[in-house]
Design brief:
Elements (H helix, E strand, L loop, with lengths): L12 H19 L9 H4 L3 H10 L17 H13 L5 H17 L2 H12 L5 E4 L15 E5 L2 E8 L10 E7 L12 E7 L5 E7 L5 E14 L3 E2 L5 H13 L9 H13 L3 H29 L5 H25 L11 H16 L6 H14 L1
Parallel strand pairs: 1-4
Antiparallel strand pairs: 2-3, 3-7, 4-5, 5-8, 6-7
Bound molecules: flavin-adenine dinucleotide.
């Protein structure tokens, strides 16, 4: 049996100073009224203006090479920015996927032309990506997907449908996993490729699917004879599955898998202190200590990423533990501080409670369900 070892990590003085810089910027922006704090802000709070402000600060694509406008800084610096943005519940959804996974994917597998075209725009916070994986009958079993790309002169013709596509109505492009050759029963994961689809292309229709809250976050994306030029294929034709797995490691490993309900926890602690509710504070302290352990594990993954190590297994484990924690926060807090959750309440606590409860069911589905993550962990631990 394999043991999972995550390195212990101490922030340097320079990194602590950097955290203070990010925090002061966010405090100042909050005081100016640039944004309201939201739970689950990385998935549902959009502000192009705010994304561009972060880009101007040099805080998007911070690990990307300088050659493409990036800042060549460490994964730990990226972790610090990410953590502060989530703790403040800042509106970061517009650029999140481009910064977290599409940019790194293009840097790893993209052509020079793609890097020169897309990366500088991503870094500026002005080019947004969606993830086109899931289909109506292909979620966990993604290899069964039906969207096809057929080779024609100069490119590919794509037909099919994607669903649950986060932010497609705000994004410029969608990295789309599709079948470029028929499925071979002996190699279910072969014959798939990743294509960058311009969401303004002819033949693309984006239809909203509403959240429980009534919010418009994800979509159905219909693709009818969409032409994708050859220069928009990512990496090798037929290697889409392996490339997609790399992307999933970026997707699963960050602090957003722990901190979606942190703004609720922080607000609840403030109220419990105000009420001098010592029993309530003891219960909240249990949540904080659990969060602290998860955070250390998550920072350990950032340290592994810095060493260019494989984090697939560790990311699946921390995502599973982190997602159940995020849901548990809302469960515990609503009993400690009973209130009517209201999405549009002026009272911040009632609003954060509503967002945390109503977004909660998605935490353990998006980016891989609990059962799938546990399957990865089980197989990874035993097969080693
Ligand atoms: C908020 C949110 C945002 C999302 N954003 C995106 C996005 O931007 N792009 C995108 O492509 N997708 C996105 N998704 C879709 C998400 O990736 C899928 O919902 C997820 O992979 C599960 O697929 P499914 O919904 O088809 O469920 P299914 O795969 O049908 O699963 C249904 C249930 O069966 C269980 N199950 C399935 N297979 C197994 C198995 N082998 N063993 C044990 N149990 C199993 C699952 O764990 C689950 O409980 C998003 C989802 C949510 C909730």
């Amino acid at each position: 049996m394999r043991q999972l070892q995550l390195p212990a990590f101490e922030f340097t003085e320079e990194q602590k100073e950097f955290r203070k810089e990010v925090r002061s910027f966010l405090q100042a922006e909050q005081q100016k009224g640039t944004f309201d704090t939201h739970a689950d802000s990385w998935l549902s709070a959009y502000s192009e203006e705010f994304s561009k402000k972060l880009g101007a600060k040099g805080w998007i694509g911070i690990t990307f090479p300088k050659k493409y406008g990036g800042h060549a800084r460490s994964s730990i610096d990226r972790y610090i920015i990410t953590e502060e943005l989530l703790a403040f519940g800042a509106p970061v959804a517009s650029h999140w996927f481009a910064d977290r996974q599409s940019g790194p994917l293009l840097l790893k597998f993209g052509t020079e032309e793609q890097k020169e075209f897309f990366i500088p725009k991503i870094v500026k916070g002005e080019c947004y990506f969606s993830i086109g994986l899931s289909e109506p009958n292909s979620g966990s079993d993604l290899a069964s997907l039906k969207t096809t790309a057929e080779k024609v002169d100069g490119g590919w013709i794509v037909n099919g449908m994607k669903t649950w596509t986060s932010g497609a109505h705000h994004s410029h492009y969608m990295i789309t996993l599709c079948r470029t050759s028929p499925q071979d029963p002996k190699n279910r994961h072969g014959g798939m490729s990743q294509l960058i689809i311009d969401l303004k292309s002819d033949g693309v229709t984006i239809r909203p699917i509403q959240f429980l809250t009534g919010e418009h976050h994800f979509n159905e994306v219909f693709l009818e004879n969409v032409f994708v030029p050859d220069n928009r294929v990512v990496g090798e034709v037929g290697n889409g599955w392996a490339q997609g797995l790399t992307e999933l490691a970026f997707e699963r490993s960050g602090p957003e898998r722990i901190l979606s309900t942190f703004p609720l926890l922080e607000e609840a602690i403030r109220l419990l202190k105000e009420k001098e509710d010592h029993r309530g504070l003891m219960e909240a302290a249990k949540l904080v200590s659990r969060m602290w352990s998860l955070r250390n594990m998550s920072i350990g993954i950032a340290a592994l990423l810095e060493e260019k190590k494989d984090v697939n297994l560790a990311a699946a484990l921390v995502k599973d533990l982190g997602n159940s924690f995020e849901q548990h926060v809302a469960e515990v807090i609503r009993l400690l501080l009973p209130a009517m959750p209201r999405k549009h309440a002026e009272d911040e606590y009632a609003r954060l409670l509503a967002e945390s409860i109503l977004h909660g069911p998605g935490f353990t589905i998006r980016g891989g369900t609990t059962e799938i993550l546990r399957g990865i962990v089980g197989k990874g631990v035993i097969s080693a």
